[in-house]
Amino acid sequence: MKYLRCFHFVFIISVSTFTFSQNVISATIKDFDSSLDLEFVSVYNKNTKNFVETNSKGNFSLEFKLITDTIEISYLGYEKKSIAINQISAIIYLKRLEIKSELVEIIGFKDSYQINREKRILKFITNDTFVFSLNKVSVGLKTMYNIEVFNEFGISQKVIPLDGYYKKIDILSNCMRMTYLKIDTVCIRFEFNNNQFQLIEKLSLDKYNHIFGNCVSYFDKKLVYQLSKFKGLEKRYFLVDASKNTSVIFKEIILEDRLKLYNDDLGKIEYGKNISTMDLTDGGQNRLIRNKQADSHFLESVFHTNHKNNFIFPLDSGLVIFNYDEKSIEILKNEGLLIKAINGAEILSNDQFKNIIIHDKIRSEFYTVKKVKTDYKICSIDILTGNVKDCTSLNVSFLDLIEVINGNVFILGRKNNVEFNKLYYKSIN
């Protein structure tokens, strides 16, 4: 104990920015190349099993028992480092871990091009520019995971290894096109800029679900929430002005009182009836009701008459609803005011289209998918008429996920019933 006290006294004098006293060590973790502070770095004492993370300035404090305890430092996309307590310096530098991505030359688009090799794709998500795939790779008896980034043409940009202490891992995308990495019960927002993978903020899974769980669309700093009651027989959309309640990165959000009241209301509401008068309503009456209800605070819409899904997307400065219940495409502006309704739209009345609507946000175009014998086809939707046109074969027999970025299609599926899902790319430009 005397040795420890002496050691502590000398260390405080010689390195004022680095402390370890009362069996607590403090230091800063930075990027080796840029010297930028690294937030959310995992610091784990392998002897005591204590675990902490760095703050926004890269700082951490961690308890230890002996100066020979070993801490393990891990961070997404960086080399893992193990250091004994008595060998730690005031600043710890981490080097980026680079995995060489496979360069692919795409020659033609007659067939859907498989863009992943020697790995199992578990899931993929997109934002407006990139595709992020969560991959499972087996190396001997060890299972490893990574995130691979593809550009809009299916070319691999970077592979980020996922190494840490977790049981469940997933990637998430929400109504605002934000991308999150879910590790156990924590969600970490990430971005990919200048060929670098950056962690932006961290939310608990409960907080993430609270903000984004029922959010179906976003435009002009407003979020559209869909809530269901009575096993989905009645659904409503509420418009929440996010700019009044939260910062851009959503540290906190407070939903409108009207939405809270709807959640707490236990009174029985029969589907297909006007919530105010309980009178039977048809599609035309429903639209009139929605126009009267729309104001600057909330949007209530679509009293369902069946179990089909509806889709709602941002369009220009408003919204478009593909309303399967009333077989109508509805264009809304001014925070819920119905501007135009296209009745009897082909896309909503034809059973061969499997209720899949895809939005290419860059081009403001909409697509649907239909099954044709042993193949799927993607078809463009004329938003002015609701008619389907220009169908293109996807060359897959089974389809799980599909997204379109700037006229380029990404498909998670397979060509037969014996192989694992693969990630395919096809241009429909």
List the helices and strands and how they pair.
Blueprint: H1 2-14, E1 19-21, E2 24-31, E3 42-45, E4 51-53, E5 59-63, E6 70-74, E7 81-84, E8 91-94, E9 113-114, E10 120-126, E11 131-139, E12 142-150, E13 156-162, E14 169-173, E15 179-183, E16 186-193, E17 196-204, H2 205-212, E18 215-219, E19 222-229, E20 234-241, H3 257-264, H4 283-293, E21 311-315, E22 318-323, E23 328-333, E24 337-343, H5 346-349, E25 353-360, E26 365-372, E27 375-381, E28 388-393, E29 398-405, E30 408-414, E31 422-427
Parallel strand pairs: 2-8
Antiparallel strand pairs: 1-2, 2-5, 3-4, 3-6, 6-7, 9-31, 10-11, 11-12, 12-13, 14-15, 15-16, 16-17, 18-19, 19-20, 21-22, 22-23, 23-24, 25-26, 26-27, 27-28, 29-30, 30-31
Describe this structure in words.
It is a single chain. It is built from five helices and 31 strands. It has 429 residues and is mainly beta. The strands form eight sheets. Strands 1, 2, 5 and 8 form a four-stranded mixed sheet that branches. It has a four-stranded antiparallel sheet with strand order 4-3-6-7, with no helix packed on it. Mean pLDDT is 76; it is low at 1-18, 246-254, 264-280 and 294-298.
